[in-house]
Amino acid sequence: NNPPQTPDCDAIVVGAGFAGLYALHSLRQRGLSVRGFEAGSSVGGTWFWNRYPGARCDVDSADYSYSFDDDLQQEWIWTERFPAQPEILSYLEHVADRFDLRKEITFGTRVTSADFDETAGLWTITTDDGDSVTGRWVVMATGALSSARMPELAGQQDFRGEVHHTGHWPSQGVEFTGKRVGVIGTGSSGVQAIPLIAEQAEHLTVFQRTPGFVIPARNRPLGPDELDEIKADYPTRRQNLRESHGGWILPPPVGLALETAPEVRDKEYESRWAGGGIAFQNTFGDIMISVDANETAAEFVRSKIRDTVEDPTTAEALCPKGYPLGSKRLCIGTDYYETFNRDNVTLADLRAAPIEHIVAEGIQTSAGLHELDMIVYATGFDAMTGALNAIDIRGRDGIALRETWAAGPRTYLGVAVAGFPNMFVLTGPGSPSVLSNVVVSIEQHVEWVVDYIDHMRRVGTQFAEATHAAQEQWVDHVTSIAADSLYMQADSWYLGANVPGKPRIFMPYIGGVGNYRNLCTQIAADNYRGFTTTPELA
Ligand code: NA7
Known about the structure:
The structure is a single chain. The chain is of the alpha/beta class. It is 32% helix and 17% strand. It contains 16 helices and 20 strands. Strands 1, 2, 3, 4, 5, 6, 17 and 18 form an eight-stranded mixed β-sheet that branches. Strand 13 (355-359) and strand 14 (362-365) form a beta hairpin. The radius of gyration is 24 Å and the shape is globular. The termini are close together. The structure holds ligand NA7. Belongs to the FAD-binding monooxygenase family. It is an enzyme of class 1 (oxidoreductase). Its cofactor is FAD. Its EC number is 1.14.13.-.
C-alpha cells in the first residue's frame, strides 16, 4: 500500500440546496477544507429550479427553515404561513451570503462522475467542464426530487410551440397571456400552477391521468405577532419537530374514524378542511392504517369536489378513486377545484381518452386534437435515485452505483452504500426525507454525517464503509415496515412507479424522523455499528 495522496480538499459536496449549503457550512466549521459543485447558476437546489407560478412549500415556513443558528432563525422574517418559492430562494441566498458559502462553490457546473481510488485514498469528481477535483470524502447533496422527468410521448419533438417543465422553469419567467396552454400532470406541481396559469392564459387544458386528493392550503400572511410568538418558542418547537413523526407539528387525531358516528366524523373533516394543509390526513388515527377509515376521508374530499365543480362530468373525472388518500403525497392547493369552473379551462381526462401522440399543433388524444401554443410538463421527478444515477459513481474496484442499484436502491440508513467508502448521501433512499419536513431530515443527516467524518479524523480512520450485512438489514427493515401500510396501494413515485422500467421498491423510511434520529444516534454511540473501517496509514 502506498501512502495516500494529498487531495485537493478534504470534502467535496455535490449540490447547493438546503442540504449542500448546510453540509458545506458544517464541514468547514469542523476545520475541513471543502469544495462545492452546483449545476444551477446560484444556490437553492429545488427552490432554484422550481420557479413555476404558484410554487410553494406545503410545510409551515417557520418550520421549513434551518434551526442550527439562533440569530438566523430570530432575524429572518417569514411573511406567509406557507412560503412561496421566491421567499425560500431569497432565504437560501441570504444563508449562503451570511455564512460566506459561495466562495467554496463552483456554480453552473454539473458533476458527471465520481470515482473512488482505494490506493490513492481519495475520491475524484469530474465535471461537465472537464475539470476534476479530489477529496477524501464526497457528500452527495443532490436532492430527492431534483431530476425532472419528461414522459416518453410519441411525437414529443414535433410540437411547434413552447415547452416547459415545472421542475426546470426558466429564470426569466414564462408569458401565458393570449396563449392556449396545456398542462400535463396533476401532482403537487400541476395543482399549484394550474390556477395561476388559468388566470393568465387565453385557454388552459389540463391533461389529467390520475386525479389527486387536493386539500386547500388556507395560506395566509404571517403577522409580526404570530411570528414573534413562534420565535420566542423556537427552542421547544424545534425540539418537538426533531422528535416528531413527520418533522411537522400537526394537531393530534381526534379519535378513530371507524369508531366515530358519520355526522361527527364529517364535522371533524370539515374543521380540518377549513384549517387547511396536511393536517387533514391526520384527522383520525386510523386514516393511514385502515382502508375503510381512509375511505371515509376520501369520500369527504370527493363530496367537496362534487360541491365545488359545477359540471358534473368534470367533477366526477376530478374525483380520485382506486387508491387510498395519502398513499400518494397529498396535494395542497389554492382554488384548484374552483379553477375548473372557469370558462377558459378544460379538463382532458386521459383515462377516458388517452394521449395518442404529440403533433406540431398540440396534443392528440383519442377524443381529438387539442390545439396548443405551449405545453407545460408537470410530470414530476425520477425521485430519490434519479440525481445520483445521473452521475457515474464508481466505488471500490470500479463498481458502478447504477449497476449496484439496477434492481433498486440499497443503502444503510439512507446515508451510506456498501462498496462506496467515504461517500455519504443526504436524503437518500432509505431515509425518511421525502416523507417528512425535509429540512428537519437534512439537518439530522448533515449533523450525523459531519460528526462521523470528524470522528474518523480524530481516531485516524482512513475509510468507513457500510457493511453489506448492515445494509441488507436496513433495506429489509425499510421494506417490511412499509409492506403492510397503505402506501403500497398506490402507483406512487415513493415506489418508483412513475418511471417506466424503474424497479418497484418502496424507497423512503416510513418509521418517522424521531425514531430514525434515535436509531442513528444509537448507531453512532455504538461506535458506528454497521460500518467497517480501515485505519489511516502511519
Ligand atoms: P408528481 O407528483 O410525480 O406528479 C406528476 C404528474 O404527472 C402526475 O399527475 C402524473 O400522473 C403525471 N404524468 C406523468 N407522466 C405522465 C404521462 N406520460 N402522461 C400523463 N400524465 C403524466 O410530480 P410533482 O412535480 O407534481 O410533485 C412531486 C413532489 O414534489 C410532490 O409530491 C411534493 O413532494 C413536491 P400519474 O399520477 O402518474 O398518473
